[in-house]
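One chain is below:
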Amino acid sequence: MADRVDAAVLRDAVDTTMKRYPYFCVRLREESGEFVFEDNPSPVVLFDSVHGVALNAKNSNYHMISFSYVDDWIVMDVFHGLTDGMGAYEVIRTLLYYYCSRRYNVTLSRQGIRTLEDEISLEEWECPVMKAENLPTPRRYEMPTALNPGVAANLPVEKYSTVYGITVAENEFMQFNRENGASPGTMVSLLLSRAIAKLFPDAQEIIRIILCVNQRKALHASLAHQSLVGGALLAYEKNLRHLSLRQQIQAYRNMVADQTTEENVLSGVASVVGLTKMLLSKNRHEERTGIAAYVDEMAVRTGTACVSYVGKANFQEAEKYVREFHVGSYNTTPITVQISAVNGKFTFDFIQKFHSPIYVNAFLKELEENGISYEFQTGMREELPHIVLPWNQELTTASQD
């Protein structure tokens, strides 16, 4: 934030915000062999440390969402199985609206902000995947294994991920995108692809970026709060490498357009439905976690890196009080780039399973060669909340945001 956090004002803002989002005030529990979210009337916690608390545990009042603060930082931790970036941004918009209104004694516009005055529609509450009918048959892809950046550079996988932050001016980066017919997500995906290819020009494995896709449009459920994220696979084929950057961008945009038709997105939804049914058919937790681990392994083989961008934050009039903004997440691929656009700045958070900045430095070189100025933050250890799972009372590192 622009100023030191006022704890009392933030406490009131958290309480008010969570009244607007009752579907996030839940506890995860086991019932007859199934896992369900049940209403949790206890207050959502606000902890005076950026380290936060374990989710679904006593210290978090058994919530799957929590807040913490220190100095001028506010942190929100949330279980990705509860929501995704789109849903999380809605909560942050509401929180900043209530917090900044009181903290700075100003009247802010409610436009584009969900507040207590709004009625919570069924579309916002209900799960569109549970209601989806006549989903297409899931598409089966036969694809070669993607280049693993850790293996390619002989980097050991570490217990904790390292985060490197890169900030560029929004107007400068958007002008660069417009000149090349790109969107921020496709441009970052391409620059990262080019950077990796220059490091390993003779690699036999394909460089493949997973660009996250919002499934709400295809499900006709723009207000849904659930975790609704698919992915478009962007392969940096050898025949693209001699083309101009603009031509490469067009190739990537064509891949995105082909994979984000309604039928193809719903095919991805159908795959998740099938996986969910398979998991529910297993009676033992060990079987379920084994399947989930296999899915994680498949993600590593499928993608060299993942790029996620939910769009401009649009914190509205409260945005001017936000000095810096970062997004963290667990990454199944060796590298995940979280893109955020807040208060006139793009931030690219490189989250990687190894400490070496080899790929970050190569990406920075791409920015330099294309005349894009930047600010760079040295790497720090990513801290994710722990989660207490219903079948295992030991703390487990969250495999979610």
